[in-house]
Write a structure and sequence with these properties.
Elements: E1 3-7, E2 10-14, H1 30-41, E3 50-53, H2 59-63, E4 70-73, H3 76-88, E5 97-100, E6 109-115, H4 120-130, E7 134-145, H5 151-160, E8 164-166, E9 173-178, E10 193-196, E11 208-211, H6 223-229, E12 239-243, H7 249-257, E13 262-267, H8 270-282, E14 288-293, E15 305-310, E16 315-316, E17 319-320, H9 323-335, E18 336-347, H10 352-360, E19 364-368, E20 372-378
Helix pairs in contact: 4-5, 9-10
């Protein structure tokens, strides 16, 4: 859905990625607008190095494009939306520098604008990475909806950068103001974080998992994945995709159980794919693997995959949606060869079996417990 945001620098037309006219979710919210109004009203100097961290769909850097900002994001989809929104606004290529959370951070930051992420760990990691580039004169302003900013959020800014306070709420949004203290003794960055998997989870029992900040359940194995690992298909699949791979533990389990498998790890999160590659390499897995940041199975040749394993997310930032799962299932159907299979782990209440029957014409219950189900769908003909 296309939407217009009025800013002190003019009106910009924004969309999420991939563009879908049926998508009811906007590409900006009140916290983006609040931050931009503050910059204009307080006449914050933007002539230096402006860095925007966590800009979800490019709303902030599109509005501020004339100041040649740098965007840092963990989201492939967010970066693609930013490219489209900048092009739509007529911004010349290269005017906005697009970095990922895995790229080396800028060497100097004069204005740091932070769209508070859902993951406190990701915020911690990125602030620690950016802190050496921040100086006493750096203007630091964070923004988020009231429900996204907690005492722990403020403490993190204070612990890593310096004294922190918040604004009054406007339209359920709030700003964070931080005054950098160059003399502050910062903690060491605890990310990436590694731990040994428990017993009883198949081929990866006792193996190492590596998690970069922001990856789902980074400090422990979540119960859904634990259940999935106990019910994976047997060896002999051929070309396998760990779709929405997270830390890559599912694809790594397949590769350990079947050295002949070719495993493609895919996620839209740069942090996730880096975690999957680190997990795979930490366990000395034999065989062939590929690691790709992208929009699901886009770019995978039709009919080229034997097995897709998927634990689809049902949130897009704070919004609950089944759009991501639907795209993943549709991509799997296109990419699988005839007779190929999609295996899905999901919360029982999400009703994925209905979607699979609508798409594949079939859905089989492989395993169930009170909270989770493992489903199997086969591509016919």
């Amino acid at each position: 859905m296309s939407d217009r945001m009025t800013t002190p620098w003019g009106e910009v037309e924004l969309t999420r990625f991939p563009e879908d006219p049926r998508d009811p979710l906007r590409a900006w919210d009140a916290s983006d607008a609040y931050l931009l109004r503050h910059l204009a009203e307080e006449k914050v100097p933007l002539s230096g190095a402006v860095v925007v961290l966590g800009d979800r769909w490019g709303a902030l850097v599109t509005a501020l494009a004339e100041h040649r900002p740098t965007q840092i994001t963990d989201s492939f989809l967010g970066q693609e939306a930013t490219r489209a929104n900048l092009a739509r606004a007529g911004v010349e290529p290269g005017a906005v520098r697009l970095l990922t959370t895995q790229d080396p951070p800028p060497e100097r930051v004069d204005v740091l604008l932070v769209r508070v992420p859902k993951s406190l760990a990701l915020l911690e990691d990125q602030l620690l990475r950016l802190a050496p580039a921040v100086h006493a004169g750096t203007v630091v302003v964070g923004t988020g909806m009231v429900k996204e900013i907690h005492t722990s959020t403020l403490r993190l800014f204070e612990r890593i950068l310096g004294p922190t306070r918040t604004s009054l709420a406007r339209q359920k949004a709030r700003l964070i103001f931080c005054t950098p203290d160059p003399a502050l003794e910062r903690p060491a960055n605890p990310w990436p974080y590694s731990y040994a998997l428990p017993d009883g989870v198949g081929a990866v029992s006792g193996r190492t998992v590596v998690n970069h900040a922001g990856v789902f359940c980074a400090e422990r194995l979540d119960i859904g994945t634990r259940f999935f690992l106990r019910h994976l298909p047997g060896p002999g699949a051929g070309r396998v995709v760990d779709l929405g791979c997270g830390n890559g533990v599912v694809g790594t389990a397949v590769a350990l159980a079947d050295p002949g498998a070719e495993v493609l790890f895919v996620d839209e999160s740069y942090q996730a794919v880096a975690s999957a590659e680190a997990t795979y390499k930490a366990n000395g897995v034999p065989g062939h693997a590929e690691f790709r940041v992208g929009d699901g199975l886009a770019g995978v040749a039709p009919g080229s995959v034997d097995l897709v394993l998927n634990n689809p997310p049902f949130h897009s930032h704070q919004a609950t949606t089944d759009a991501v799962a639907w795209r993943m299932f549709t991509g799997a159907l296109r990419s699988l060869r005839p007779g190929g299979e999609l295996w899905v782990i999901g919360n029982r209440h999400l009703g994925y079996h209905v979607k699979l029957r609508r798409l594949f014409g079939n859905s089989e219950l492989v395993a169930s417990e009170p909270k989770f189900v493992v489903l199997r769908a086969v591509k016919r003909g």
